[in-house]
Amino acid sequence: MTNGSEDLHGSAPDKSKTVLLLIDVINDFDFEEGEDLLRLAMPAGRNIAKLKERTRAAGIPSIYVNDNFGRWQSDFKKIVAHCRRDDGRGKPFVEMLLPEDDDYFVLKPKHSGFYSTTLSLLLTHLNAENLILTGIAGNNCVLFTANDAYMRDFKLFIPADCVVSNTEEENRHALKQMETVLKADTTIAADVDLQKISG
User: Fold this and answer.
1) Confidence of residue 83 (pLDDT cuts 50, 70, 90)
2) H or E stretch including 144?
């Protein structure tokens, strides 16, 4: 069966060996422990933003894999607007990582980016083999997404400085689990060789 569409957007890369996933970075941090998590998340957010600039320059597409906040009728642009409101706790974090017009997005109802979403289909369309996972929380949604990606035979890159959890200890433990069990490369973002993994 032939693919009816050679190009999804007209400008975003529609074939790429490597893809950047930004997991739950569009976040209002409006929950218990949200303030503490935001404090830990700000440095990671800056690292993710720099990595996204590098991946974009390398022709690597970005997919925002974001919680739908329990609203099955959610609109991604409305979620971004909600998280950018002036009185929103997460505004400074979200504004570092705003999606661009040619970025992709997938809304998820549960922890894993693959569960009941179109992510697998989109990655198949892109011919992806390598996934760079970033975002929140390392010991929860990043871990669950990484687990499902590993079971689908993707090679995982999870830069240690681009993932954050409620505590530094939980984050270290999650990264160690992903490195040991899921064979993830947890090299910090600045040292990820994008040319090598996307060539």
Assistant:
1) confident
2) helix 141-151
Q: Say if 104 falls within a structural domain.
A: yes
Q: Which of 169, 40, 172, 31 is nearest to 93 (CA)?
A: 40
User: What is the H or E stretch that residue 41 is in?
Assistant: helix 34-57
- 191-194, long-range: CB < 8 A, 24+ apart: 192/51, 192/132, 192/157, 192/159, 194/18, 194/54, 194/55, 194/58, 194/60
How many structural domains does the chain have? 1
pLDDT > 50? residue 5: no
What is d(CA 160, CA 23) in angstroms, rounded to the nearest whole number? 14
* Beta strands per DSSP E along the chain: 18-23, 62-67, 104-108, 130-136, 155-157, 163-164
Quickly tell me which residue has 């099955």 as its tokens. Answer: 72
Query: CATH number, domain at 112?
Result: 3.40.50.850
173 part of a folded domain: yes
pLDDT in tens, 64-73: 999 876 555 5
pTM of the entire predicted model = 0.90
Q: pLDDT band at 1, cuts 50/70/90? A: very low
In which domain, by residue range, is 78 found?
18-198
State how far the Cα of 186 lies from the Cα of 130, in Å rounded to an integer.
Answer: 13
User: What pLDDT was estimated at residue 3?
Assistant: 43
